[in-house]
Amino acid sequence: VQLVQSGAEVKKPGESLRISCQASGYKFTTFWITWVRQTSGKGLEWMGNIDPIDSNTDYSPSFQGHVSFSVDKSTTTAYLHLRSLKASDSAIYFCARQESPHPGAVPLDVWGQGTTVTVSS
Amino acid sequence: EIVLTQSPGTLSLSPGERASLSCRASQSISSTYFAWYQQKVGQPPRLLIYGASTRATAVPDRFSASGSGTDFTLTINRLEPEDFAVYYCQQFGSSPETFGQGTKVETK
Fold first, then answer.
1. pLDDT at A100
2. Cα distances (Å, whole numbers) of residue B5 to B24, B91, B99
3. Which of B44, B57, B96 sits opposite A94 (nearest CB)?
4. How many CA atoms lie within 13 A of A83 on its CB side?
5. How far is residue A83's CA from residue B48's CA, in Å, rounded to a whole number?
6. Nearest CA of chain B to the CA of A4: how many Å?
7. What is the pLDDT, as a whole number, of residue B60?
8. Hey, are the CB atoms on A107 and B45 less than 8 Å from each other?
9. Is B47 close to A114, i.e. CB distance below 8 A?
10. Exposure of B97 by Cβ count < 10 A (0-12 exposed, 13-18 middle, 19+ buried)?
């Protein structure tokens, strides 16, 4: 079971970015994919998640309107889309799988390796 | 949004000692949807405990957790060298899900 993310990116302010997270070793549609941002100043931040079954999404208000999530079930890949990048978007972005909430649900038990994003002019 | 506040910010201990980490929520949450993670430098977080007290796969039994309502505790008995890391709490029962700011367990 693993999640493999795309490689590091260097972008200019105002550009857009797509990060991929390819799942393997389990049935892709049985777990949500959650995206988490990590910066040195703010620790771990929950960005939101997506249900691969129907692409239903839940975004953190802190990221709503600035990011979007999508999935491609045919390649068992989830995507994080970031637009109008700013220097403050420089961070490490992780994907992780999560069971939908229910008693006994397992949260973020498998993580991608992280994708480092640098936004600089 | 539920705010999780971890204390202390840094814990300086020696191998073999016991670590006690606290996480306090701004409002009562169900322990069913509470978790602890460990993160080492250059690695993604690792799930340690969920449902407030269930250890994840391959997590040694020196890690234990307890709590309910607004106060949760992670205990590490007999610290091993590989336990020195940063620990985060998380609630995943209410959107937006939130993490604490982390407690660093460092070698004294």
1. 87
2. 5, 12, 9
3. B44
4. 6
5. 33
6. 12
7. 97
8. no
9. no
10. buried
